[in-house]
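Readers of this paper often ask what the protein records in our data store actually look like. Below, we set out a record of this kind in full and without editing:
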Amino acid sequence: MIELMAEHQRISILISLSDSPDYGLNSSILGDILDKYSIGCSRDQLHTQLDWLEQNGYITVNRMTKSTWVADITQAGLDVAKGRVVAHGIKRPGPRSQQ
């Protein structure tokens, strides 16, 4: 169950970053987005997911303060978010309607 939640959180983070106009969001906004989809977590758990995504090359993180981080998606992360690449440890996104 824990790994399943982590996979959902990671793809939700990547999709949110890919949908952002500048491909980046702060950890507070990302936390709110995860809460909206009922896959919320503590700030420490969110930072753990951001660390994981960064270590695997899917995002970069600017640690502005202890509690506020800004994440930016990389090309590798964008490929995963768009479903062009399947990545171990990240839920594959389903088809999305073009609006």
The two ends are 32 Å apart (CA to CA). The chain has a mean pLDDT of 94.
